[in-house]
Amino acid sequence: MADLFHFVPGYGHYVYHSGREPMFFTLLAFLLTFVVVRSYTRLGRVRGWQSGSVRGVHLHHLVPGIVASLAAGAAIIAFRPGDDSMLLLSMLFGVGAALTLDEFALILHLEDVYWRHEGRSSIEATLMGFAFGAMCLLATAPLGSDPGQDVPHWVIGGVIGVDLALALVTFMKGKLKLGAFGVFLPGLALVGAARLAKPASLWARAFYSERKLERSRERATSRHHRYSYRTHRLYDVIGGAPNLDSPAAAAVDKYQPANSRRV
Question: Do 108 and 7 share a structural domain?
């Protein structure tokens, strides 16, 4: 393929020769698109720029994002592109994914909550998407490697099977992020499966006694008070602090200048 970053130490061995370049370009396009889009919307909110529209219809940027992702995926499946074309389609998919996840809250709530408190879920979804892509990049084995030469296949299959089972338990306990990352890192799946389930999870409702369920609620409340403020502050630094609180205010154009807070 292109090997565009051959001057970076380790890029040729760990990315280019191992066949990871399409995933690398997807992540790079994803990150750059998110930075540009969030910078533009935050600047537009301060300066009072109007949102884009087509024939009077407000065009959210998740629309071109969905189109770009679907187009890239369909082209990869249908045409089996060559090396250079594959990199371009990988970048197109990364751009589309970033545009879509940046407005994940709109899809989740079916209303424009971009600058409301609910809009922080878009930042969380974007961070999870980037982290998941990075884990895929790091977990991809080089094409020339054959783990069966050193370790029996039944051992590898057993480890993968146990890891997936632990990840499933982690998902059932309501720990979605830990379960997703645990698919790639068995240690995280083990930690998630061993920890106390969230009170509203399938696992807690099915297997916990009332006493253990109450303990789960107390732990969830304590964790929320301990970490929610720090998490929200981090999201606000990345994506901008929300300034629309009421449903009526949410109908205002999302580039409306903040009244009491600049970003």
Answer: yes
**For 142-180, what is each residue's pLDDT tens digit?**
434 444 445 566 776 787 788 889 889 998 998 887 887
Q: Is residue 259 part of a domain?
A: yes
Q: Which residue has the higher pLDDT, 164 or 26?
A: 26
Is 125 domain-assigned? no
Burial of 118-154, coded b for 16+ CB within 10 Å and e otherwise, reads bbbbbbbbbbbbbeebbeebeeeeeeeeeeeeeeeee
* Count of domains forming the chain: 2
Position 19 in a domain: yes
Say which residue the tokens 């992540």 belong to.
27
Count CA atoms closer than 13 A to 94's CA, side-chain side: 25
Radius of gyration of the chain (CA): 22
